[in-house]
Write a structure and sequence with these properties.
- By secondary structure, the chain is an alpha+beta fold.
- The chain has one domain (2-262): Fumarylacetoacetate hydrolase, domain 2 (Alpha-Beta Complex).
- Helices cover 25% and strands 28% of the residues.
- The chain is built from 6 helices and 13 strands.
- The strands form 2 sheets. Strands 1, 2, 3, 5, 6, 7, 10 and 11 form an 8-stranded mixed β-sheet that branches.
- Helix 1 (3-18) packs across helix 2 (33-49).
- The chain is globular.
- The structure holds 2-oxoadipic acid (OOG) and magnesium ion.
């Protein structure tokens, strides 16, 4: 293990734990994509060493809306742990994050081990159920500014996720309306078709990418397919809901931020 990469992982971990943004690495510590994934692994190892458990993976930048919002041009994947799970309908403590945003997604629950080169039919056959989901992303970099290597090292801005009720895969998930509401008002609208043309392709990509890292999508794991629309910045007291036609909804509300965290 490279001490240099581990010290970068430590810096990112400290930033997340202390809710303090750091400068993007590419300014003075540019990383290759391969090294960025090594840093991500070291970062996740730190979480596992604290007792967290792997619960799945997430895809990032599977939609044009997200690529455009963040100014990047390739698919990325990150790792999810149980500490990131937030119950549907519950409160999110904003003080635990730096500058969190929410985005509407769909989540797959893996029923059968999936890894390597698979086609869309094989990928969907390995799925036990599907759910509407909200991802809470929180870049550890100032102003949410990063390049691909930066964001990969930062475990793809993973911070928390809210997964709605699981249900069997409906007949066709290729073009379902996805809506994000804030305080009861429409904020973002899209379609599952925005996710790589069809969200099954996110599963295909996840199976291929984890295999390159010597892993598999394991039964019981969650795969977040990536946001169908741009993300929205969270503010104290906000109520956030996703609705995916034919799949259902999921929601959370933001707590008020304690006084000492205000004005950051
Ligand atoms: C990186 C994470 C991207 C998605 O769904 O596209 C992502 C970020 O936007 O900070 O989770
Ligand atoms: Mg996401």
């Amino acid at each position: 293990m490279s001490a240099r990469l581990d010290s970068i992982a430590e810096k990112l971990d400290d930033a997340a734990m202390g809710q303090r943004a750091i400068a993007q690495l590419s300014i003075d510590t540019p990383l290759s994509i391969a090294d960025a994934y090594r840093v991500q692994n070291l970062l996740v190892e730190r979480r596992l060493a604290r007792g967290e458990r792997r619960v799945g993976v997430k895809l990032g930048f599977t939609s044009r809306a997200k690529m455009i919002q963040m100014g990047v041009d390739d698919l990325i994947w990150g790792q999810l742990t149980d500490a990131m799970l937030v119950g549907d309908g519950s409160h999110l403590a904003l003080a635990e994050f730096i500058h969190p945003r929410a985005e509407p997604e769909i989540a797959f629950l893996i029923g059968e081990r999936l890894s390597g080169e698979v086609n869309e039919e094989q990928a969907l056959a390995a799925v036990r159920s599907v759910a509407p989901a909200l991802e809470i992303i929180d870049s550890r970099y100032s102003d949410f500014k990063f390049n691909l290597a930066d964001v990969i090292a930062d475990n793809c801005s993973s911070a928390a996720l809210v997964v709605g009720a699981w249900r069997p895969l409906p007949g066709n998930i290729g073009n379902l309306d996805v809506r994000l509401e804030i305080d009861g008002q429409p904020a973002q609208a899209g379609s599952t078709a925005a996710i790589l043309g069809h969200p099954a392709r996110a599963l295909v990509a996840a199976a291929r990418l984890v295999a390159q890292a010597g892993l598999a999508l394991e039964p019981g794991w969650v795969v977040m397919a990536g946001a169908a629309t741009a993300a929205e910045t969270l503010r104290p007291g906000m109520r956030v809901r996703v609705t995916v036609d034919g799949i259902g909804g999921a929601a959370f509300s933001c707590d008020e931020v304690p006084r000492e965290k205000q004005g950051r």
